[in-house]
Amino acid sequence: MMNQNLFDRDEMIRLSREGMENSMRFFMTLNENIVKLADMSRDAINETSKKNLEMINKAFDEYQKNNRVVTSRIETFTRDLFNQTTQKTETHSKQA
Q1: What are the φ and ψ backbone dihedral angles of 8, each rounded to 5 degrees?
Q2: Cβ–Cβ contacts within 10 Å for residue 54, how many?
Q3: What pLDDT digit, counting tens, does each position of 42-77 carry?
Q4: Nearest 5°: phi and psi at 48?
Q5: What's the CA dihedral at 75, 80, 83, 86 to 10 degrees?
Q6: Which DSSP string corresponds to the chain?
Q7: HSE of 57 in the Cβ direction (CA atoms, 13 Å)?
Q8: What pTM did the predictor assign?
């Protein structure tokens, strides 16, 4: 009977090394792709943040403009009302 050695040590070492190299290559590629995606996401987030900030600044400017208009109208209305009230009071006091 022929004694067959079913375990080839050199072939096992070669297969293990090849498996480790392929695993390392896979995980390095995976990490590189994750870093690329993170960079793309960061750029998109920065652009979105910039647009949102511009929109908020524009809305605030519009608010200030509208607030000045409303305040001016209230001041004008109050002044006119005060003047009318003062004139009526002066007219009534002169007639009495």
Answers
A1: -105, 105
A2: 10
A3: 888 899 999 999 999 999 999 999 999 999 999 999
A4: -65, -40
A5: -100
A6: --------HHHHHHHHHHHHHHHHHHHHHHHHHHHHHHHHHHHHHHHHHHHHHHHHHHHHHHHHHHHHHHHHHHHHHHHHHHHHHHHHHHHHHHH-
A7: 6
A8: 0.50
